[in-house]
Amino acid sequence: IHYVVPAQGSNLWFDNIVIPKTCKNKEAAYKFINFMLEPKNAAQNAEYIGYSTPNTAAQKLLPKSVREDKQFYPPMSTVKNLEVYRDL
């Protein structure tokens, strides 16, 4: 199975970690986020879930095969044809 971006372009999306306004334990939430941002943990998470990571220190810890996988880290020629959907 391969991920293909049509020549006409496609959408771009981001997954994020957030702390809800109604969070009952913000200190634990911040600790979890900081834990996930540590390069070793971010690299392990990226490999486990099969997503790219924007954490440049974590990227350096990834196997070369992952760092060079265009499905996770597409070339700029592909990225320039992607767009983020905007709320209407």
TrEMBL record:
The UniProt record lists the keyword Lyase: no
Compartments where located: Periplasm
UniProt key word Transport: yes
Molecular-function annotations in GO: polyamine binding
Record key words, sorted: Periplasm, Signal, Transport
GO cellular component terms attached to this protein's record: periplasmic space
Gene Ontology BP terms: polyamine transport
Pfam family, one: SBP_bac_8
Cross-referenced InterPro entries: SBP, Sperm_putr-bd
Signal sequence segment: none
Chief location: periplasm
Protein name per UniProt: Spermidine/putrescine-binding protein
Native organism: Lactobacillus delbrueckii subsp. lactis
